[in-house]
Design goal:
Blueprint (H helix, E strand, L loop, with lengths): L8 H12 L6 E6 L6 H19 L4 H10 L2 H4 L5 E12 L5 H5 L5 E9 L17 E5 L2 E3 L2 H7 L5 E5 L7 E2 L2 E2 L2 E5 L20 E2 H7 L3 H7 L4 H9 L5 H10 L12 H7 L1 H4 L5 H10 L2 H23 L7 E4 L6 H8 L29 E4 L2 E4 L5 H5 L4 H14 L2 H21 L8 H15 L5 H6 L1 H14 L10 E2 L6 E2 L12
Helix pairs in contact: 1-14, 2-3, 7-10, 10-11, 11-13, 13-14, 15-17, 17-19, 18-19, 19-21
């Protein structure tokens, strides 16, 4: 029997603030607009939306739901250099009360996911991108809202008292989440663009519903099996989905209590909501084995934002930059094998394994320090501190490094590491991008650009082309920057900030 959730509305928001925020900084997740999306980034966006919607719409409608939802990212893209800067937050609705303090302490609530998207930045000088006091766009299942006041007035949320963070920005002050309360009157009908989804399909979760998700015998049986067919059947269960279970585990009071029927693979897929990566199996494994769900996830996310914060402080001496978390675009190990298996003849004799004692190995700590290729031992430490220092997802990096070692010759693997070192130590500091570039993403782009232009993998040819390859990778990351050059920004008439209204080609036909 699952332990009933007994958190107040404030306690629920405290949990999400500890996972999704970084002190008083404002955080964003970066994804290119659909016409620029790489397949793995499409998977990240699909996973995020699917985790929120699939239990309501079912597998037959999820494709349409995703297509509709993707279009909601388009309004924000023209303000962020053709990219999407968004952040997930939650709205808690308490029915039957009108007093704000009573709402915060109420233990019967419904939970509604919302995305905020960046529009303006507070300063157009020195490449700064702080935007806490600026305009933001809000997206939920019922529509797109151009500012916070419009969202509060026109939202189709149920009537009651809303308990949430100010303008969708989680902020911790002395460890406590800062909250606002708003009286929501009877909600309007959903926007016309989402016609076809009836009001009964509103996507929200209740404290009772999250607890019930663990009590279903069918769900218990499905989670105990590990086949693709069972994974699909989970999506078909009405009002039950993998992320319901994850949210229950994060919100239950006793972090550390064992839950035997949890499958790590399904948990890892649901964690995409919080991690901005599809490679989360190591993190999920640690969470399952130690049952420290909230602590493990919060530490993992905070470590990532700590790295970004350190780089942001180095980039400016005044104020703070927005903390922008770029998506982990490294494919799964299986996808990497398909990409690399037809090229090269290397032979890797070492494969990364999940730690036997996960409590002693943090989920993002690099386990592999050297690679043996055809008898040659390659030490990562020989390629400088920058490579290891900027790793955001150790699982993805290890998948990359062991995959190229398995299929490529030792000299070519060394050359990939050398280019990654050069980019990390020099190239990334030469241009005005002010967001975190993980080592694994840089290495993956170097591999892709090498294969695109030098598919024969001739060592001499690739060595001579090293400056060109690095230049191409540099241009790629520059094109993905959400921060426009300061000279293109203009004053916003609605707030203290500045924005650039650009144009791009919208192509969502293959989503």
């Amino acid at each position: 029997m699952a332990e009933p959730l007994n958190l107040t509305a404030r306690e629920v928001q405290q949990v999400f603030a500890e996972i999704l925020s970084h002190g008083e900084d404002i955080t964003w997740d970066l994804l290119p607009i659909p016409d620029r999306l790489m397949q793995n980034q499409k998977d990240i966006l699909k996973c995020k939306i699917g985790e929120i919607f699939n239990h309501q719409f079912g597998t037959s409608q999820i494709g349409y739901a995703i297509s509709v939802y993707i279009h909601t990212y388009i309004p924000s893209g023209k303000y962020t250099n053709g990219q999407s800067l968004s952040a997930l937050f939650f709205v808690v609705i308490v029915k039957g009360v009108t007093e704000p303090k009573l709402a915060e302490t109420n233990r019967s609530w419904s939970l509604h996911p919302v995305f905020r998207c960046r529009r303006c930045v507070a300063d157009r000088g020195e490449g700064r991108s702080r935007s806490r006091d600026c305009c933001m766009i809000y997206v939920d299942q019922s529509g797109v809202y151009n500012d916070w006041d419009t969202y509060l007035k026109q939202t189709a949320l149920p009537a009651g008292v809303m308990v949430t963070c100010d303008r969708g920005v989680y902020k911790l002050i002395d460890g406590q989440v800062e909250l606002k309360t708003y009286l929501i009157k009877e909600g309007r009908s959903p926007s016309e663009w989402i016609a076809g989804f009836s009001p009964r399909n509103d996507c929200y979760l209740t404290s009772e519903g999250l607890t019930a998700a663990l009590e279903s015998p069918e769900l218990h049986r499905i989670y105990s099996e590990q086949t693709a067919r069972c994974i699909l059947r989970v999506n078909e269960l009405d009002h039950i989905r993998a992320s319901d279970k994850v949210l229950y585990l994060l919100l239950k009071r006793l972090d550390g209590q064992k839950v035997d029927n949890l499958n790590a693979r399904l948990l890892s897929e649901s964690l995409v909501l919080f991690t901005h990566s599809v490679n989360n199996f190591r993190l999920a494994s640690q969470m399952v084995r130690n049952a420290t769900y909230r602590t493990s996830l919060s530490s993992h996310v905070q470590n990532t934002f700590d790295k970004i914060s350190e780089e942001a402080m180095e980039a400016t001496t005044k104020g703070r930059l927005d903390l922008i978390r770029s998506a982990n675009v490294v494919p799964t190990k299986k996808e990497l094998q398909n990409l690399l298996k037809t090229r090269g003849t290397g032979s890797c004799i070492r494969e990364p394994k999940l730690p036997a004692e996960p409590s002693k190995v943090p989920p993002n700590q690099l386990q592999i320090r050297s690679i043996n290729i055809k008898g040659q031992e390659i030490q990562l430490a020989d390629y400088g501190e920058a490579i290891i220092e900027h790793i955001s997802n150790a699982e993805s990096f290890e998948n990359l490094i062991t995959s190229i070692a398995e299929h490529w010759e030792p000299d070519m693997c060394k050359l990939m590491l050398k280019m990654t070192q050069t980019f990390g130590e020099t190239t990334r500091k030469e241009f005005w991008i002010k967001y975190h570039l993980p080592t694994e993403s840089v290495l993956y782009q170097i591999i892709l650009h090498t294969l695109k232009r030098h598919s024969s993998l001739d060592y001499k040819e690739v060595s001579q082309a090293l400056p060109d390859i690095l230049r191409s990778v540099r241009c790629y990351f520059a094109s993905c920057s959400p921060n426009c050059p300061p000279e293109f920004l203009k004053k916003c008439p609605k707030c203290v900030g500045y924005y650039n209204e650009g144009t791009w080609h919208d192509d969502t036909s293959d989503i």
